[in-house]
Amino acid sequence: MPYKTLIIAEAGVNHNGKLLLAKKFVDQAVLMKADAIKFQTFKTENVISKMAPKATYQKKTTSAKESQFDMVKKLELSFQDFENLYAYCREKKIQFLSSPFDLESVDFLADLGVSLFKIPSGEITNDGLLERVAKIGKPMILSTGMSTLPEIQEALNVIYKTKNRQVTLLHCVTAYPTPYKDANLKAMLTLQKEFNVPVGFSDHTLGIEMSIAAVALGATVIEKHFTLDKKSSGPDHQASLEPREFKQMVDAIRHVEQGLGTGIKKPTAEELKNLSVVRKSLIAARDLEVGETIAFDDIVIKRPGNGIPPKEMSKVLGSKVKKSIKQDELIRWEHVV
Asked: 177 preceded by cis ω (within 30°)?
């Protein structure tokens, strides 16, 4: 296989603040054959003002009466819960990831020993958080939802000043769900060209097609929300895949990876087996006797393709038959002189 896309199953806060439910998400991520499962680590008091309004999609999927602070507080897991989850992921042999939303959470995840940091789109202008993560020296995946190219460059400048250049950029559209017409997958190629870094796609569309297409375009990372039940209460469930759908996406991505190949154009081993069957050769249109001169009407072009190829006809025309040939028999070089 030329390469393997890192497929991140984004559990986010779909565990609804319950550790046991979060562990069920881990179990499903393993069954779905995701490479990693990602959560969100934060202390609500450090991240959200009590006067902060909800996003429009959050008002549609949760009670419009509660504040964003109250909604998110119910979805918070403790650091102790994450220690438990980290150990559980190691037991289940799946990579644990979690996006930090505040400095205390960054330090906690660093101490926990995470091998990779995923920075959410909303933190791309949070220079202090970017710098703190970059100084840890681990690879970083940076989502670019809502961002302009200058903002992305500024974020990279902050990271690169720490000498950490292990950055992958994810094209992302911060809309839940993202309409297909807004997915703009070609923007991923723009990021790759503009910043000369590996790229991927954080997919918020409802289906699986955009993630599959992103891999075909060269994504090295795919991040996709999943839930155990789209009807569950909470802000992100409706725009998430259920396990069956996520597994279909994983399978399709692995097939696409195999199909991308090496880029070298040559017949495969399976093609070579079929070559003589489907190509054509020069065939005698009638019985040809020794000494006859072969004319155009004496030749037809038919299968199989293990005789003289049609492109050599000019070399056969006008030659003498030195060994008789039956009608519909392959004309071979030993037949003519």
From this structure: yes
Domain region containing 180: 6-260
How far apart CA 110 and CA 132 sit, in angstroms, is 10
Phi/psi at 212 (nearest 5 deg)?
-65, -45
pLDDT digits (tens, 9 = 90+) for 187-233: 999 999 999 999 999 999 999 999 999 999 999 999 999 999 988 87
Structure token digits, residue 99: 């996006």
Instruction: Answer whether residue 267 is part of any domain.
Output: no
The DSSP output letter for 235 is S
DSSP codes of every residue in 285-297: SS-B-TTPBP-GG
For residue 141, the one-letter residue type is I
* Alpha helix segments (H runs only) across 118-242: 127-136, 149-160, 186-195, 209-217
Question: Is residue 253 located within the same domain as residue 296?
Answer: no
221-225 and 199-203 as β-strands: parallel, antiparallel, unpaired? parallel
In one letter, which amino acid is 4?
Answer: K
Q: Are strands 299-302 and 281-284 parallel, antiparallel or unpaired?
A: antiparallel
For residue 270, tell me if it sits in a domain: no
Domain count for the chain: 2
pTM (predicted TM-score): 0.89
Q: Where among 260, 288, 311 does a domain terminate?
A: 260
In a domain, 141, yes or no: yes
Q: Does residue 283 share a domain with residue 181?
A: no
Q: How far apart are the first and last CA of the chain?
A: 49
Question: Is the same domain home to 300 and 202?
Answer: no
pLDDT, tens only, 287-314: 999 999 999 999 999 999 999 999 999 9
